[in-house]
Each structure stands twice: as structure tokens, then as C-alpha cells.
## 1
Amino acid sequence: MAFVTADVVSDPGNDPPFKVVFMQGKTVIAEWPVESVKDGEQEIVEFIKSSMEEDDDEEDDDDDEESGNDNEAAGGGRK
């Protein structure tokens, strides 16, 4: 499997004039417009960080379910 890459590229003739492009090999898997290269670079970093945080949250939820520490088990369920 090819690596996933992200870059900010010029998008001539469009407004905004740049776009963030995520690619897997030669296939575009996501893209969106941005106002500047700096904005695009910041959005790439924020996207990756938020994806990692979501993954950590899912792992925490899985750990709670496996140990029986879900909301009901902790006394948080409705009666």
C-alpha cells in the first residue's frame, strides 16, 4: 500500500487560490480549498492531530467496554 501524503497546491482560477490535497499513491482521496499555503499547512496538522485524538478516544471507549467500566456498570445508567 502506498503512503498517504498531503500537500497544499495552487488552484489557479479558483477562489480561494489554493487547496489541500491528500493522496494515496496517485489517487486523490481528499481535497478542500484554503486561502493560503500557511492556512493549508495548519489545517493538515490540525486534521492529523484531531484524527489521533479521535483514535485515542475510541481506544479508551474500547478499554472501558472490555473492563466492564461502561456507563451503566459505573452506576450511570437510568433506572
## 2
Amino acid sequence: MATSLIEALESVELAAGQTYRCQVRGQVVEVRVLGPAPDSCLDPRDVRLDAWVELPPPRPAVRLRARPGKLPPPDAPFIPRDEESR
């Protein structure tokens, strides 16, 4: 049975301002204790992350049709007068 991170941390005495590090499956994990949570903190069970939301495709509002044509020549570069005499 898998244990959630919140359940695992509830069983540990954590001190505010302390940082705890451990190694899990070859990865270094760091837990930093900031202090008591404010009253308006969300309950983790209220957070739902569903990244697979399908939105309808947008309808085109304006349709532009490109036509091939000739481009104007590029602007002539500015050459200062002191460099012309060299």
C-alpha cells in the first residue's frame, strides 16, 4: 500500500526553520519547514489536478489569404563620413 507524502510527514516531528534532507531511490529530497500554516491554507484533498481537459477548438474570426509577390529592396546601410575616406 502506498503512503502519501503528507501522511508520511505527519508521523515526523518537524521544527520550524529547519531543513531536512534524505536520499530516496538515488535522489536527494529536501524538506524545508516554514512554520505553522495560515488558517486559509487549502486542504490537500480539495485540490484536483486534471491536466487532460479538452477545450473546443477556436473558431476563426478573420481569414487572411497570402499572395506571393516581390519584396521591396532593403534600405541602404548608413555609412558615417569618417569611414568613407578609409
